[in-house]
Amino acid sequence: MDVAAVLAWLEAHASRKVRDEMGPRYGIHTDKAYGVAMGDMLKLARTIGRDHALAAALWDTGWYEARMVAAMVEEPAQMTAAQMDRWCRDFDNWGIVDTVCFKLFDRLPPAFTKVRQWAKRRNEFEKRAGFVLLACLALHDGAAEEEDFLVCLPLVEEAAQDDRNFVRKGVSWAMRAMAGRGPRVHRAVQASAERLAASPDPARRWLGKDVLRQIKRSRK
To answer: Residues 205, 159: one domain?
Structure first.
């Protein structure tokens, strides 16, 4: 399939109800969306298979669903650090951030480097990407060592005072996911969360309490 065929397929499978609910129901705000269900996008991606050139072209269209499919069909071995940065700069909603990190970025060699770089970004969704990518690495990268995650904890504490919704939820996810990466990391995350929960700063306190509540619940 070429770009035109993919866009035509997406338009044919669009739902006004899905599009209208993206913002009010799911908090996904974007100017270019057809309104295609995730299940249909996954089905399309399986039909296409891996295609680096098509993925790049789909991303450049700017359509939300085309970019989602691009993340699903991109060939990891063909993606460069520069391309990761280009895509990150285009992030404009949490849905595309999470899908790209979960489906693609966390299997790429520069992933931990990008965590450290993007976690310091100012833009809300670029910054979220740093922490969502860290969460996905904790969930998916079986070869990573505990030390790989321990060195990222200062990034978490530095970002804890950011009270923007999509940033703080990304930071919380990263901490909770890291807590499952071995006893040393779990202890360090819990200690960090306890410090944050005791903070007089509302954003830091919210984050610490949210993480403690979730990791305690996961151990039951």
So the answer is: yes
19 shares a domain with 109: no
27 lies in which domain range? 1-78
106 and 180 co-located in one domain: yes
Query: pTM score, two decimals?
Result: 0.95
Distance, CA of 103 to CA of 89 (rounded, Å): 18
Number of neighbouring beta carbons within 10 Å of residue 116: 14
Domain count, the chain: 2
CA 125 to chain centre: 9
Intervals of the chain under pLDDT 50: none
Q: How far apart are CA 152 and CA 140, in angstroms?
A: 16
pLDDT of residue 101: 98
CA distance 54 to 94: 23
Alpha helices by DSSP H, listed for 141-164, are: 146-150, 153-159
